Amino acid sequence: MKKNCLLAVCMVTAAFVTNLSAQTYQPNWESLDKRPTPQWYLDAKFGIFIHWGVYSVPGYAPKGNYSEWYQYWLQTKAFKGAVVDYHNKKFGAGTTYYQLAPQFKAELYNPDEWAKVIESSGAKYVVLTSKHHDGYALWPSKDASRDWGFPWNAAEVGPKRDLLGDLFTALRKTSVHPGMYYSLYEWYNPLWLKDKDAYIKNHMWPQMKDVITTYKPDVFWTDGEWELPAERWKSQEFLTWAFNESPVKDRLVVNDRWGKDNRFKHAGFFTPEYQPELDFPNHAWEESRGMGYSYGYNREEDAWDYNSTQSLIISLVDKVSRGGNFLLDIGPDEHGKIPPIMQERLLQMGDWMKINNEAIYSTVRWKRPHQWSEGKTDYKPKKDDFKTVEDLMLKLTIDPEPGYAVQECFFTYNPTANNLYAIIPKWPSDRKFTIKDITLDQNAVLQLLDTKESLQWKQDGKNVIVSLPEFDPNKIKSQYAYVIKMNNTGK
Question: What are the residue boundaries of the Glycoside hydrolase family 29 N-terminal domain, all occurrences included (predicted)?
Fold first, then answer.
């Protein structure tokens, strides 16, 4: 009898899994929006964006701007001609952007080293720019060279190698999921400028199918969608193929950039960009940002333009506390080296994650993401100050303006283990931390995640007062933020 019951359970389970994988999606948002976000992505929380291409050769934009837009700034004589002046001095007047491609040699590119540093950071996925708005492909794209009329991919001009494929091979030796960014449009592609529908049919679609079929990414991150509506891009039709027929149909994660006015509305995870104020409690989302301001490598940025490790960790914690992911960008140079300051930030974040990742991975938004101190909670930086002057996350947590409150702690919750985590950016000088508006069972066990030592606590009305130990830097290694774990608590 037991064997028959077990067999029946197995058959039902198998039927359920088969039915799930056989789900057929239709080319409309009503159907496509019902596709669940793959769980691996929801659990991952932390990813690395990589902007790398011909624009890495000049590696320049005025501070507070994107260097990966170099070709556009050059063509439009932006910033009162500042980019043109830089270009003429460095490369000579009359040198075109396309003539920079042979200098994109990537001769020091070691994808295994990249993968090692990224895995050491604690990140669980990577999104590499397979092709940015300049149309230059990091893989052997025949479509790119054909439609531009000259070699315009990394296998034919510049590095003379498959940069995308080499990184994917390296990442698959690690625990990091490989993914790619792809720009739908190309600023100056002759076919795009002549016939947009022909470009979509004969250039964009073949390229997208090529990279997905060949490299089998876990993330396909589109951009450059703002020129046309999704219907003109035929985005619904493409996603139907991706979810029903592609070789990664069951694990592929996509974002929301599939047509103008589509962002924050349809498809996969939503993608705020330098928009920390945005919140999406009922939808998967991910905020991206650079370590400086530019996504591509920018020689104009100085050490003080880069966010501190503490700020980046608090940014990660902030996103996770609100149920989102954090996509942190690095911009390698034209030689294929990740700048040392970026490597340092990644490794320091990794040191923190080794100790505290339990409070990050596989967690969800709790009933409130953070708690405020006394004071005003509506602080906003002056226009564009966040680009080059001010570290917003530190203003909201460590260094507030007079009269403004700080976010004293962030909450994350693991529903499987029923563990609640309070992540505090500042170690209290009196070694007392008050968790507001919470009632704990009298037998609850609280720990400092860094040292695993139990913490004394007491219920004080609607609050819990936690006693922390003396801060001993020989024992407490976290430095940037500290995690109080509340076992079997949080419902």
Answer: 18-358
